[in-house]
Amino acid sequence: MKRVLFSLFAAAALGAGAAQAQTTPASATSAASAAGAPTVVNRSGAPVDVERIIRSFTQKESEFRKALNEYSFKRDAVIQAVAPLGGQIMGEYHRTSRFVFDDSGTRYEKILHFPVPTLQLTMADIEALSSVQTFALDAAQAHEYSFTYVGKEKIDELDTYVFDVTPKILSDQPRMRALKRSKDPVRFFQGRVWVDDKDFQIVKARGKGVPEFDERFPIFETYREQIDGKFWFPTYTYADDELTFKDGSSARIRMRVKFTDFERLRGRATVIEEGTPGDTEEKNKDKKPATPPAKKP
Length: 297
Hints:
Shape: globular
Distance between the termini: 54 Å
Number of helices: 6
Order of helices and strands: HHEHEEEHEEHEEEEEH
Strand content: 35-45%
Number of strands: 11
Strand order of the largest sheet: 1-5-6-7-8-9-10-11-2-3-4
Number of domains: 1
């Protein structure tokens, strides 16, 4: 049976900037970091198999990331700059696309709606739309994080385990300095995740990208929906946050991204018939060729 997270998206707007995840002390992460494994901090009431739960949902994140590459989908993304007083929209970037596959199986973006933007974005901003903070905690990256068990929470019909997530690099100053010097710095997820207590799959996430050097990133909330009765794919991301920069200036950013119309890529077969040219022509006279000729005979 299909299980859907029927969360009130209005709650995302109210809570997007309410709180950030608690940071695990550096002393608690040192041993596990050296061992190349995720650090787990248990609070009162944590399940005895909490480490198995973390292994399970990070492994599923890896599986879902891979599975998403087999789906086409529609993405509707809106980013707005909002006036601090009055809430007027000062600029907007709106792009609706369908991510589809060509005959070789390569996925590409087909733009459906893209009015002239009144909000200037950097290339990094646009690239961030492609990931939309999805699948940041897969098994390959789990050792980079500390997980703190928070407790249990019910979201609609789902009972979930709640974890705070903190990247270990934030307490590693040499790595932070090296990352700042990098021309292509890696971003990590810092925030909170809600994990279904039956299937051990992330159904909701709230957090932001870190570290922040000269940039600032809004706190976002991402909700997921079960697709094809198996994969929990992100279907809605929302952020409404005030960003304060080093020079004291600030900007309010609102972001909404919807993912819909998931469709799995089906296998394609190419049939090559052998025989005389006349036989082949007779068999295929009512068929449309899979690939049009380069030029008219």
